[in-house]
Amino acid sequence: MEANCTHSAQHYFLYSCDLIKQGNLDEAIKYLDLAITISDDKMEYLVKKFQLLNDYHCVDTYITLFSTQLPFLYAQLPLNIFCELFKNYLDIFSVDEEYLGALLKEHNIPAVLAYAYNDILHSTEFTTPMYYYFYAKEYDTALDYSLLHLKSNPFTLEILLLQARCLKELNDIPNSIKKYNEIIKLYPTCKDAYLELGFLNYISKQFSLAASLLKQAVKHGHSEQVCVEVIADCYLNNKEYETAINYFIRALTMSSNLTITHKKLAECYSAINKPMLSKKHLKLSAKY
């Protein structure tokens, strides 16, 4: 059969079905690819190609094509259809689950699919397992379920915060910071994002930025008690002693550790050559 611009994608697909029934796999693939090329819905015919290969037990071809197109298929297909093709792949190609998880992760595909693909064929409700694994401190798995959820659902503030927290707990600090910045851009009054990003910058010794973020957290509704001593310590680390003193004094009425607060005040007063006040706060620190 010659390729003809008047023939439809369905026409070439049906012809490829006849060819594959006759055992002419190479020619069948040629016309399958032609159907994909001229179709307005290329993914529909790509899926048909995989289904046809599976139906006629073209094992090697299915394995090779699926393996090489794995990231493209995940990105382009609805999750349930991807999982159907993925299940067929695993039915004909035995792969160790640990190796499969690593392979998926290498292609930026949630590794949880290595064992959850079958469940997804029956349910695409991911928030329950996502929160379950988060509170079980299995942050990798919780993050994977959040990514699966976002593949077919709009993002929410709660999902983005969970992702940022998972990344932080996994010690992926650069990507956690990146995610918090994304949240603040989308939700500029989110007090939790300012607070948590402020603390991340504090432990990263980015004291000026940490102080600015924590002040934003208070501005947008977080308790000053949670932030004030850390803000003061940021100014102390930056050797802005007068400002640090102002914040430490504010902290005295709400401090959970007055010993440390008075010691920090003593340090500040010593740095600006006020020895009497420094001694005063050292004595006060010994009382608690």
Explain this structure.
It is a single chain. This protein has 288 residues and is mainly alpha-helical. Helices cover 75% and strands 0% of the residues. It has 18 helices and no strands. The longest helix is centred in the first third of the chain and has 14 residues, at 25-38. The protein starts with 8 loop residues before the first helix and ends with a helix.
Helical percent range?
over 70%
What fraction strand? under 5%
Mean pLDDT figure: 93
Please describe the biggest sheet, giving its number of strands, its sense, and whether it closes into a barrel: none
What Rg is obtained from the alpha carbons, in whole angstroms?
A: 29 Å
Order of helices and strands: HHHHHHHHHHHHHHHHHH
Please give the alpha-carbon distance between the first and last residues: 93 Å
Q: Count the DSSP helices.
A: 18
Secondary structural class: mainly alpha
- Taken from the alpha-carbon principal axes, the silhouette is rod-shaped
Q: Give the low-pLDDT segments.
A: none
What is the total tally of β strands? Answer: 0
